[in-house]
Amino acid sequence: MRIMKILFKNRRILFLSFNKNNYSTAPKYLATLRIGEKEYRTDEYTNITPKILSYLNRNLHLKKDNPLSLVRQRIVNYFYSSFTHGGNPIFSVYDNVSPVVSTKQNFDDLLIPEDHPSRAKSDCYYINSTTLLRAHMTAHQSELLRAGLDNFLMIGDVYRRDEIDSTHFPVFHQIDAVRSQRKEQLFENHPDLDIFEPSFDRTNPHAYTNSISNPIKQSCHTLEATKLMEAQLKNHLIGMVRVLFGEDIKYRWVDAYFPFTHPSWELEIYYEKNWMETLGCGIVRNEILANAGPNNTIAYAFGIGLERLAMALYKIPDIRLVWSTDSGFLAQFQNKNANANIVYKPVSIYPQCTNDLSFWLPPTTTIDTFTNNDFYDLVRDIGGDIIEQVKLKDKFIHPKTKKHSLCYSIVYRHLERTLTQAEVNKIHKEIEDAATKAFNIVVR
Ligand code: PHE
């Protein structure tokens, strides 16, 4: 395995920008950041941390004794065996593409507007203002279409800044797919039907404003083509969920919105008395296809998160466990047929320790403008994987001084041993000190 190197040209700068006590992002002119073979300039967007960079190249989805890899194999097998041409699978699989992408790949190519909240610095890990760790596998859709592919799966690690609890982790894994068809494939038995409305000139798609104001279809597509694609998409995905969870799995479709598909849906399955969102999907916006090349196809796309599926299938109670290198965990998934019925047995449950942290915000920040995700990243950077959860417990504005205060509960639990209170207190104090310096707060 290639070792990830985080090197700064100037060592002093490494210390300045990523030292625990000086957490804020590196000013533009200070540093460049090396990831693997490449060097990137940093700027006011840079918010990636060494902790996050340490997850690159772990490739859990390709490790054969990892539960995520078992789920990946089952889904890939389903697509390989369900779609063949002359005995060969028609889907090609891309599961080893670097997670470092451009904002063009992650957003622009997918028609995600300039002001869309998913671009916010508080939600993504930026290397600089034009480069980030992909926030979804859909980031590779356009380049693969441009390369001439029509049916493909993109599998890998994606990065999002988020809250901390048993189901969220800043890195998770997705399988994304595109399936495209030409008129002759889609309407094999109905040569009189077409993919595009007569008013749409597919040889000059840019002269046509493709509206998505009709909830049923894009204006360039015929109703027949949209409905047939919708039926296929839904059948294929239900087929997949049945392969994973059994024939009797209860599910429902929910209308959704994604900038890159229209119409769009989410699939929820009924699992342990709750509706659980498993995937997003829809008909690819024709602008994306036309910009990337093909002007004679209609395509569907979807994206599935692997962690949730694996946690449900194998009854894994905490998302951090998929990162475990503990043999007690991995042995339960080792040398297993991908279809084996595995129920995770906790090696042992170690106690939690909860410490609160209350502080006054500086006069320039309010309880509404304080970026929770900045705080979560700082806690995770210092506490590492023993941080089980960070909860915002209380917000308070002093009636007289009008000073704003926040209180977070930090839950500590080691997955493999018991933590002592003294040990936790020491880390908690380090978090207090680092937060005091980084956010200019005053601990209460
Ligand atoms: N990229 C979307 C997400 O991460 C999922 C998606 C993929 C939805 C493809 C529609 C089509 O949530």
Automatic annotation (TrEMBL):
Residues 348-444 form the FDX-ACB domain. Keywords: Aminoacyl-tRNA synthetase, ATP-binding, Ligase, Mitochondrion, Nucleotide-binding, Protein biosynthesis, Transit peptide. Pfam families: FDX-ACB, tRNA-synt_2d. It is found in: Mitochondrion matrix. SUPFAM superfamilies: Anticodon-binding domain of PheRS, Class II aaRS and biotin synthetases. Residues 71-346 form the Aminoacyl-transfer RNA synthetases class-II family profile domain. The keyword Protein biosynthesis applies. Its main location: mitochondrion. InterPro entries: aa-tRNA-synth_II (IPR006195), aa-tRNA-synth_II/BPL/LPL (IPR045864), Fdx_antiC-bd (IPR005121), Fdx_antiC-bd_sf (IPR036690), Phe-tRNA-synth_IIc_mito (IPR004530), Phenylalanyl-tRNA_Synthase (IPR002319). It catalyses: tRNA(Phe) + L-phenylalanine + ATP = L-phenylalanyl-tRNA(Phe) + AMP + diphosphate + H(+). It is an enzyme of class 6 (ligase). Its EC number is 6.1.1.20. GO terms for molecular function: ligase activity. Belongs to the class-II aminoacyl-tRNA synthetase family. NCBIfam families: pheS_mito. This is phenylalanine--tRNA ligase. It comes from Vanessa tameamea (Kamehameha butterfly).
